[in-house]
Design a protein that fits this description.
Two copies of one chain form a homodimer. Chain A is of the alpha+beta class and 162 residues long. Chain A has helices spanning 14-22, 27-30, 127-156; strands at 2-10, 34-42, 46-55, 58-69, 74-79, 86-98, 102-113. In chain A, strands 1-7-6-5-4-3-2 form a seven-stranded antiparallel sheet.
Chain lengths: 162, 162
């Protein structure tokens, strides 16, 4: 299992960031590659959502389950139907309060590649190539997602500090 | 000013991690390149320390001021006498509680290169080369420092979770 962590400091209070991270339907507004989010199931502590996301010019869809820890301000997610290259994909959004109306946002990922069959992952990629593609994709998407939440929160809060 | 953030999840309670991050004199035990830490000044909320650190086989020394925010579990630091390539070097250790006896540790850096004189930074490096050297050094040291605190905390707490 691969584990990655990325973090960003946001010039907006913790409740503003938490509202944005919690609002799955709003993802289509703040993450440009996300075209549509459909809520399939919902309770106070969980959601099952279907996402339609453009990746490299093609539309992909997957279903994710999110567990919402309100007091801890953590949302853990995992793909119920992962994309073809992966046997598992999950992670957490973690929202922490900092002094001075700032917020620490951390995004983690835990994932595992599918085993190669006849030397190929998902019927197309050599294992090293698949590992590299996923690593680069997680890195790029993590930075993009954190940046999108930061921009949305600081805009909603009235702009970044000078 | 360049800003970087790195984070790690530690399988030990927040007070264990905070004690390790707060104990500047202990750094010489847990960070192998740090040979000696001398406390020059100390109060409940600040410290001035002199570090003796081996970098690329040579001993370097610098003086840092640390501001300790006990309730927020944040230690901010900045070099009072930065190393020759830098006009500023500072950052924060931030320690957050997670559920299940886990801790989120975040390490940030904010730094600025010295301006080039006659095309050279610190009399030796072209600006792009200096920028790249510092970027690589901050990346490597951040990962090493977070890893060292993680190992020390999990060892003290009795080992990582299975």
């Amino acid at each position: 299992m691969q584990h990655t962590e990325h973090s960003v400091t946001i010039d907006a209070p913790v409740h503003v960031v938490w509202e944005i991270v919690k609002d799955a339907e709003g993802y289509a507004r703040i993450f440009p590659p996300t075209k549509k989010v459909e809520i399939l199931e919902q309770s106070d502590v969980h959601e099952v959502i279907r996402l339609l996301v453009e990746v490299d010019g093609n539309d992909h869809t997957w279903v994710s389950r999110r567990e919402i820890d309100f007091p801890g301000r953590v949302i853990s997610f995992h793909q119920i139907e992962p994309v073809p290259m992966l046997s598992q994909m999950g992670g957490e959004w973690r929202v922490f309060e900092l002094d001075g109306d700032q917020t620490q946002l951390v995004l983690t990922h835990d994932y595992a590649l599918r085993e190669a069959v006849d030397g190929l992952v998902a019927g197309v990629f050599a294992p090293q190539e698949a590992a590299r593609l996923v690593e680069v994709g997680v890195e790029r998407n993590s930075l993009a997602d954190l940046g999108a939440v930061k921009t949305a929160a600081e805009t909603r809060h009235g702009g970044a500090k000078p």
